[in-house]
Amino acid sequence: MEAADENFNASSQECVRLRKPTTIPSREQIETIEKRKRMDSPDVTTQEDDNSLENAAVIQQIALTRVKHQAEVLKKELIEQMDVQLSSIMEEYVAGIESVRVPQKYRSFLGDDQSREDRKKRKLPCGSLPEKEFIARHSLLTDLFEINHIQTIYHIFIAILILLFMNTVVEDIFDKGRIDLEFALILWAFGDFQTVLVTWVGMMFFTLIVVYPAFHYWSHKRLTIVDKTKRLVWDYFWLACYIAYMGAAIWVPLTEILAHKLPPASATTLLMEQVRLLMKTHAFVRSNVAIALCYNNQQYSKPLGSVDIKEDSDQAPCPDFSKYLYFMFAPTLVYRNRYPRTRSIRWKWVFFNFLQVVGVLFYLYFIFVRFCVPVFRQIGHEPMSAKALVLAVFGCMLPGTLVLLCGFFCLLHAWLNAFAEMLRFADRMFYQDWWNSSSYATYYRTWNVVVHDWLYTYVYKDLYEVLGRRNRVIPTLVVFLISSVVHEYIITFTFHCFYPVLLLMFGGFGMLFSFVTNVDPRLGNIFMWLTLFIGTGLCMSLYSMEWYARINCPPSFEGFMEILIPRSWTCLANGNV
């Protein structure tokens, strides 16, 4: 009932409102009506939709920011992982490059200035020269043979050896009807080798049993002598003993060579071992005598019986015998208490190097048999014209250069690498790239690094420090004099005659050429090789002529003059050549 009343009243009020007179709406009312119409239109979004879109945009921006942040974190992690992996790869790559042991002279070109900085840090006293440094490194050819192009050159030389063998076999078949390689020439060249072995054992025995005990006794005994005059007399007495020993070490092997008339290869082997032991003896004494003379420890002023000597110390006046023994067989002529060592011995590498030595010996055999013996063995039996002699000299230039290359490869590469591997001697820079030298000064420094280091350390360096750093000519001349005399000494007692061809070429023209340095590198290298071809051809031809002249021609002098004057000259003067 009450609800019906309320409906009625509402209807009445609506009717009354509709019946009111119409009035003109105000401007504000019109704007309100239009605004309501726009809001009721289906083409326009509501306020709630606008708020929803704004919220969605904010959420999207937040999500995008999070994604960017996660992407940055992922990018950083990936870069770190890639950096670790690349660093590991580069370390392995650099380790592989370092194992190649780039020669010291090329390291500055590759940007490796560590050695130069180390030398700058180690400032040398005024007027002194740097010492020889031993580091672990391969021989240059060992690394170069890893390159296919260089390995092909090695294969070419092997192919030439095979061709020489086939040529000799074919000629023997057609000329003699059988294969006659005449390996008796090799057996003859190394004949009476038991005398070489016995003499070598004696030289080594005295080097080990006499030199080291004598030096040990001198260096320790002198520390117990308080009086300076007596100590000076003691030192000079042992200096005289040292000179006497060196003279005996030269004389005794020579008497064996002359008494047994050893053939060329046997005599050369014994003479080279004699020179090697003499150089090692001087290196040991010279390197340690300064330490013994400067050694100043108060405990050695006590009587000899109360002295407690620590033999294992590097500061002792005399090193351990084990160090001396290792040095006697190590492939170096410069003494050090310690050398860089390898971890293990590769016996396959040792066998391969000795196999290369045997191969080079056969290479030399075929060169002499094919190019030397047929040309010169008729000297003294048949006359040889000047034209034939000149052609023979020029014909020996290429074989002589091959002999030079074979000797270099056999001794300085294969032989020394074999002993270095057996003794785990890590520094194997026995030579450098002498074939690229543009001057003889560079050639002499890089051809035989082992001998060069000895001459530099114990001859040039000592004279340089004594005479003053401004005087380099005299040490250089003395080095050339010693080197040329020793070379001629070996040649003289190998052929049992004095024919100073090598002395004049090496100590004369070679020394003069060493002062010519400011030339174009290409022209200098061509000049070096041209003169090497000419020099080796002259040496091979003249020494071969002298050898066969002493076999086929009668002697023209007696006694010492017969050794001093070449017999090939007398054969030429008498018309036998």
UniProtKB/TrEMBL annotation:
Listed GO biological process terms: cholesterol metabolic process
Membrane topology listed for this record: Multi-pass membrane protein
TM annotation in the entry: 152-170, 185-215, 236-254, 321-337, 349-368, 388-416, 473-492, 498-519, 526-545
InterPro entries given in the database record: MBOAT_fam, Oat_ACAT_DAG_ARE
Subcellular location: Endoplasmic reticulum membrane
The entry's keywords: Acyltransferase, Endoplasmic reticulum, Membrane, Transferase, Transmembrane, Transmembrane helix
A Pfam family recorded for this sequence: MBOAT
Single GO MF descriptor: O-acyltransferase activity
One Gene Ontology term, aspect cellular component: endoplasmic reticulum membrane
Catalytic machinery residues: 487
Family stated for the protein in its record: Belongs to the membrane-bound acyltransferase family. Sterol o-acyltransferase subfamily.
Name assigned to this protein: O-acyltransferase
Organism: Daphnia sinensis
